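Good day; I would like, with your permission, to put a structural problem before you. What I wish to show you is a protein chain and, alongside it, a tokenised description of its three-dimensional fold. Thank you for your consideration; the sequence and its tokens are set out here:
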Amino acid sequence: MYIKRFLLVSYLASVSILGFFFLRGNLGKDDIIKSLDINNDNIWFEIYIPRINLRKFVYTMDSDLNNVDYNVEILDSSNLERKVIFLASHSGGGKASYFDNLVYLEKGDIIRLKGIDFRYVFVVEEEFYIQKNGYFDNFFENEENVLYMITCSLKYIDKQLIVKARLISKC
């Protein structure tokens, strides 16, 4: 009787403690895996979107981990000198569907990018849909200080959701 009670209490205490850390966001399964078996030299920056509770590493462009099938990918068309950043990720419930909840962002929501030597804060400006054809046709010659996040639409099967955010602070 005492052994069963001890095992039950031990189990509940363990689940409670782990649950507390997962809910606080300080310790997530992905973070544990990354800290154990991924070379952190490949990490370029972290994206954090408080409204949808997204916190994810983005890897350098030359890293094998900078791939939409595994992570949030920074696209080659990004121009970092002008701070025009294109990030893409899947949506739809798969293992690498980190942008599932982008649809819930609203104008005025905050997005933070934090690297070793920079910190950017963006504010969501608009959301729109484009045709899903692998291209994001827009005119970027005059664009500066803007972040585009791209994912498949969960609402329209033939479209992609684009969230555009404007840089409001850099450190």
Observations:
- Residues 98 and 152 are 11 Å apart (CA to CA).
- The radius of gyration is 19 Å.
- The chain has two helices and eight strands.
- Residues 1-23, 25-39 have pLDDT under 50 and may be disordered.
